[in-house]
Write a structure and sequence with these properties.
- It is a single chain.
- By secondary structure, the chain is of the alpha+beta class.
- The chain folds into three domains: 86 residues, conserved putative lor/sdh protein from methanococcus maripaludis s2 fold, CATH 2.40.420; 87 residues, Beta Barrel (Elongation Factor Tu (Ef-tu), domain 3); 117 residues, RNA polymerase II/Efflux pump adaptor protein, barrel-sandwich hybrid domain (OB fold (Dihydrolipoamide Acetyltransferase, E2P)), CATH 2.40.50.100.
- The chain is built from three helices and 19 strands.
- A hairpin with a 2-residue loop joins strand 15 and strand 16.
- Helix 2 packs antiparallel against helix 3.
Length: 352
């Protein structure tokens, strides 16, 4: 073999290798694309239609006394007598506490003395024997003394502002009331009085229901103490602010309790039927959750491909969920099986 033959062979072998490698690479790439294009997921679908549902919602709450007051004297002093005990029923205007009346007696004596001077100077003023300035001075003193007596009379005899039940007694007869806070509410009191013939529940409601909550709306109150026995309440107040953290607003529900079966502090549930509305309700298995977040989504079948749609959840009805989304329309084909393997745009084949 001469030198020219060897050189031709050396040039031919690399060229043949490059040609073979190029053809092999091209075929491999083509086969891979073909496999991807043929990757089709099998799914089942249902047609979405709106249905009429009763817009009901339920929230937990704790019952409270409809009215509660912490009775105390306006100024410190010795307690002469407390006329009631905890748990005792009282009527409106009933005398509950008597404070030491030494200052009241002194004020009354001073008032009587000033009243005599006031009437004498009033007579002399009419005949021109005293100046108007002197009369004005004694009248001012008399008015102040009378006001002081009225103040002491009100604060040495504590009366019940409403009919209710004594819920707390913090002193005994003869003890000194200092005016320092001594109740769980952080207020100073000799007695606490609650109204239990009517209770109230403060309920935090989702902000989307704000337009539907009206004063006078009936509320079904249920308790664990009386299972299966509902009590009827009424919305009496709607708080105007929405909590930006919880996205809720507060309502106040009054609950009649004439027989006293319900007690303040009891756990309760408040259910409200708001309206009959049209809504999309779908099987709960069709809704997926994005891992690591609270985002919920589902897949629709459109022209042989899966389309991902983010949704918000409404009310639950057994194994069905109300969904809220501006992207879902009547007649859409919802994927209800096989959706766990899908991505947005995945080709799908629908089976019955």
């Amino acid at each position: 073999m001469n030198n020219k033959t060897i050189i031709r062979a050396m040039l031919f072998i690399p060229a043949f290798g490059l040609l073979f490698f190029g053809c092999s690479s091209g075929n491999s790439s083509g086969d891979y694309s073909s496999d991807e294009d043929q990757r089709i997921e099998t799914v089942r679908v249902m047609t979405v239609h709106p249905r009429e549902i009763a817009r009901t919602t339920s929230y937990t709450a704790h019952l409270q006394a409809f009215r509660e007051v912490h009775l105390a004297s306006a100024s410190p002093g010795r307690i002469s007598r407390i006329h009631v005990e905890p748990g005792q029923q009282v009527r409106e205007g009933q005398l509950l506490v008597e404070m030491d009346q030494t200052q009241l007696h002194q004020a009354r004596v001073q008032l009587q003395s000033l009243e005599v001077d006031f009437r004498r100077l009033d007579t002399l003023r009419r005949v021109g024997s005293v100046s108007q300035q002197q009369f004005d001075q004694i009248r001012t003193q008399y008015d102040l003394a009378r006001s002081n007596v009225e103040f002491l009379e009100e604060n040495t005899r504590l009366l019940a502002p409403f009919a209710g039940t004594v819920s707390g007694k913090y002193f005994e007869n003869g003890e000194m009331f200092s005016g320092a806070p001594n109740t769980a509410a952080g207020k100073a009191a000799i007695l606490s009085l609650v109204q239990t013939s009517r209770l109230k529940a403060l309920v935090n409601v989702a902000e989307r229901y704000y337009p539907q909550i009206k004063q006078g709306l009936k509320v079904a109150i249920s308790t664990d103490m009386y299972p299966g026995e509902p009590f009827e309440g009424t919305v009496t107040a709607i708080y105007p602010m929405i909590d930006p953290g919880s996205r809720t607003f507060r309502i106040e529900v009054a609950v009649p309790n004439p027989d006293g079966r319900l007690r303040p502090g009891m756990f309760a549930r408040a259910g409200m039927e708001l309206a009959q509305v049209q809504a999309f309700v779908i099987p709960s298995i069709a809704v997926l959750k994005l891992q690591g977040s609270n985002e919920r989504y589902l897949f629709l079948e459109e022209n042989g491909r899966a389309r991902r749609v983010s949704v918000e959840l409404g009310d639950r009805y057994d194994d069905m969920l109300e969904i809220l989304s501006d992207e879902i329309r009547e007649g859409d084909r919802l994927i209800v099986a096989g959706q766990a393997r899908l991505l947005d745009g995945t080709p799908v084949r629908v089976t019955e």
